[in-house]
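cron nightly-structures :: item 1 of 1
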Amino acid sequence: MATKALPAGRLSNGEAENSLHKEGLQNPHQEFKRRHANLGSDGTIATPDAENCTEKKARVQREMTLQDMYNQDSFDDDDEEDSDWEPMQKHVEIMKWFCTNCTMVNLDDIVHCDICGEHKESGILRHGFFASPFQDGLMDVESEVKEKYKGELRSGVSVSSSCTAIGFDERMLLHSEGNAHSFHELEIYKTNSMVEMKSHPHPERADRLRAIAASLATAGIFPGRCYPIPAREITREELKMVHSMEQIEAVELTSHIYASYFTPDTYANEHSARAARLAAGLCADLAAAIFSGRAKNGFALVRPPGHHAGVRQAMGFCLHNNAAIAALSAQAAGAKKVLIVDWDVHHGNGTQEIFEQNKSVLYISLHRHEGGKFYPGTGAADEVGIQGAEGYCVNIPWSRGGVGDNDYVFAFQNVVLPIVPILANCLLSWLTNGQLMALRKKYEGMLFDIIVVEFQLITAAGLGESSLNGRVLVAVHNVYTNLCSSLHFIYFKSNLMILQPHLIAASEFAPDFTIISAGFDAARGDPLGCCDVTPAGYAQMTHMLNVLSGGKLLVILEGGYNLRSISSSATSVIKVLLGENPGCELDHCAPSKAGLQTVLEVLKIQMNFWPTLAPHFTRLQSQWEICASKSKKKQIKKVRRAEAPIWWKWGRKRLLYNILKGHLRVKSKGY
């Protein structure tokens, strides 16, 4: 929270104010002297003595300040009657503060933010999203949360056996928009060699990482259940695999400049180049560690973000493309195919540009688009890749804001997972007849198109027998979209579920490594994204992707600018990486009308490259027609309700009805 004083005058900047002072001090009554230089009191020509008197008076006035001239009473009547004279306006100081959670401005007499409701003295940077938004309840919430998670730690995974790695380095916090705290958080940017001062904090700020780190510490997750990897700066040779030398040198140049801008919203200071190298280095090392088996999965808690950074330009708060660098690092470690799923609310135009000609990397993005009106304007459904790599860019562009969990999970079930099959080892699990019948009854009508005698289970490799039964239902639900509709048979057998190795169609993309560009600016409450995804929604999407690539999954932080939303969402995602089930399963995901329309548009285009999508398009097309017919019937009913009932047209009130309906016409008598 920062408090500032704002002048209420109308001067646009300090230069204009100085100009006004200078003009007043040098010639405070030049207009008066010009008007009366040659005139006496009676209108005749003035004498030389009168002129000398006037000049002497002018010299006295030059030695006085503007405020003295306004307050003194020695002016004669003619001076006081001068219509051009205006005293200097007094400035009224208006105190304001910026919300720690969402950066929105509030007046000083308001205790809670008008936008997000966060308290003026919020403890979110100390305790994360566990801190109460109300100041009085902070300590109670803190003690309650700590006691709750202490119990989980005692029964949970020990640090030594943890397989989830976290990439973080405090030096990334130095990346900021100038030295904001030294100048009352004034923001400086350059535009055509002119420097302008802004008074609003930048949304991409170091507090984003502080809030997530505080949440993980309060929950006992990190440090605790996850382990850190050592940080290193990415080398120039590694950067050259993704970016041009011009872009790399432009970022490096900022280390010699106090404050600079690549675009009006993409800043850098003297620490930004190192922060970007550290972020990229952490992502590269996490990818190599996960693919080689030194870590099961990982979360890159890094900034600045990267998915807007293209081959030749830094933009959209991004300097180096962390996800692209991680993908190439995984391939250098032996991965042949890499899947990148980008759920940031903004399209990752930089990542798409880097891989749009590469068939070894499948890029799938879910983002707000609104016909190209939402930043950065790219990512339409018909952007599918170029030069032989058509189909390896899959864009799911939402046509409006407010998109929530149901639309995202629905898109995962009908677009993302059908393209990417689930691979697993052969596992056995015994169920009783009652459990099997309950399983069949639960999923038969909802999921399975073809039901025969045996049951084929696809689940993540490496699960112990004790945890297998607990994950069977989720695995079955996720398997449907990329097996049943791809003409893979799901078999039921009396009391034995057997995973039989299945053949993967040539049209399916089988990744060896999965990366999530995890921007949390589609989360509920984000001031930039204005969407409605909850922490449970992010956890569910992570869970659905965690069974791909044998569990080799790296989550990289991108956007997200509401501290409470980003910290709670990131914590939910990391819990899934640690092996916890999502808080709530979104089994029956009924999409919005706009969401269904978007998914249909994507399927119609992408099924030309991925035949496994065709059955989904056919099924959803019929649902859309049913939905459209129901909507049409509702409209017809509304119109009928607006009309008068039949009985109203007859009887005593027929005349009134005809008048209201315009049916009554008066016939004039002819002459």
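cron nightly-structures :: done
The chain has a mean pLDDT of 74.
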